[in-house]
Design brief:
There is one protein chain. The protein is α+β, with helices and mostly antiparallel strands. The chain has 4 domains: about 220 residues, Histidine kinase-like ATPase, C-terminal domain (Heat Shock Protein 90); about 160 residues, 2-Layer Sandwich (Ribosomal Protein S5, domain 2); about 140 residues, 3-Layer(aba) Sandwich (Rossmann fold), CATH 3.40.50.670; about 50 residues, no CATH class. It is about 35% helix and about 20% strand. It has 20 helices and 24 strands. The strands form 5 sheets. Strands 2, 3, 5, 6, 7, 8, 9, 10 and 11 form a 9-stranded mixed sheet that branches. It has a 5-stranded mixed sheet with strand order 12-13-16-14-15, with helices on both faces. Helix 3 runs parallel beside helix 6. The longest helix is centred in the middle third of the chain and has 34 residues. The chain is flat.
Amino acid sequence: MSEDTNSKMSYDESQIQVLEGLEAVRKRPGMYIGSTSIRGLHHLVYEIMDNSIDEALAGYCDEIEVIINKDNTITNKDNGRGIPVGIHPKMGIPTVEVVHTILHAGGKFGGEGYKVSGGLHGVGASVVNALSEFLEVEVSRDGKIYKQRYERGKPVTSLEIIGESDRTGTKTTFKPDPEIFEETVFDFETLLTRFRQMAFLNKGITIRLIDERPEERVVKNLHYEGGIISFVEYMNRNKEVIHPRPIYFESAKDSSYVEIAMQYNDSYVENIYSFANNIETTEGGTHLTGFKSAITKVFNDYARKYNIIKESDKNLMGEDVREGITAVISVKLREPQFEGQTKTKLGNSEIRGLVENCVNERLADFLEENPSVAKAILDKCVNAARAREAARKARELTRRKSALETTTLPGKLADCSERDPSKCEIYIVEGDSAGGSAKQGRDRKFQAILPLWGKMLNVEKARLDKVYENEKLMPVITALGASIGDDFDISKLRYHKVIIMADADVDGSHIRTLLLTFFYRYMKPLVEEGHIYIAQPPLFKVTKGKEEFYAYNEKEVEKTIREKNWRKEDCSIQRFKGLGEMNPEQLWNTTMNPDTRAILKVELEDAVAADEIFTILMGDKVEPRKEFITSHAKMVTNLDV
């Protein structure tokens, strides 16, 4: 960061500006935190944590501690400056009370309290307060400790001095309101993933996550002096890297700052993560555009200069130079312009130029100074270009074949009559026998069936040209109609629900994992936008006389028998070994009828974690997979062997 950004500046009552009062948060919480599900619950923690991170960005905080208390409340402590406690000049009440009870009140709206901030809307503390059964805040500053308590957004005590302190900082404890949230139990791993990312993005700060709920408290200290270099190394730790150390460069101009870390591995997918003021810009923006155009230019210039690509050859394309890259782009700027309140795409035009210039100069210098690394990366890029050309020819051949046939849809597909994709769903079914039952049992109006047989290609270990040659995957690509890879166009998707229906055994699990890997790597928007589902066929049918019910596990069988006051020996318990054992009526009633079925939506909570799981489960390295299976074995609740 520049000296100007970190210089000592005043932070007092005059820096807190009020835009509007706190209204309707409890009535419409989804407008402020996305949802009242488990995701929204964790969002409360992030909002308070972001205030501490903003203090770190301003240069006044280097320790943050978050505690999940035994009663499932959250405590967030930092050693920042402490929220101002004096009487607010406009509102006439303590400023800490303004921050917690009035929406859009904060030090981030043009005052000098913060040069760089992630919490741009100033809604964090007030929204968390409004959605909490209670919230207590303690502020240490000016040699004293101040405390105030709120219940469901309203102060129930005045701001009191409860002691003296030679330290500064803010401590917030809150309990999410069970009247608002569907779930009020925090997940340690979810918080750990988020906080690890924050520690990577802010080198030098320490984030401590403590879970007091287990018999033996769990403490995780997150501190990375390497910053985003450590982040890239962490993401590549289960992959074979092409060069041992990530390439790193940084640049600053005026009040804007950019840092980039990148490292190539031997996979065939790109993983580029971009951030602006610590906020992950999942839709990219000007910083990502600048990075992509610059690395394409730099690698082409170097390859031409040293005759790695011949004069008669075409230039490498962007997708060629990004194959196998893991990169983090982090920019910090005074006034970021995000598209939409979701803050997922950066719009500042000047940042593109800053990133491009940084990459053009620093990456070119690196390649000149490290010719062996340059050669290893460019060999991969050239191979990627050849594979892309092979994929293009395979794709064109596929299209020509389709044009000669009477229909472009795969022969085994039983399509539905509805033509509005938003009302249509397709079941991808393991095995011909199960496919036959599904075809007979379905509602032909809106349900299509595509049977698959045998195991398909593991795309984690294959390039795009191999996908086009695979007879198991091509019917899926053709049936969905939206193509794959860079050609994928979600507007052409023929079914808005894509439901994977496989047996509840080891082979069925493998089929599901292979399909999910394929969708994640080559049709990622399907996963990101919630179009992928997993069918949940029952494992058991229990019959007594004319009564029957279906159960998904043994516990459910025992529970239902107990609730009905039946004796187990009087019941007939049938275990389904596979979908093919069910007749069409049973399959419809248990697994396909929208009124009675249970299907799981596949959601992408965290892209870094998702990439890691697919790499571990489907990649070449055996040790990480063995370690994963060993450490998660105790969590398995239903394994058919």
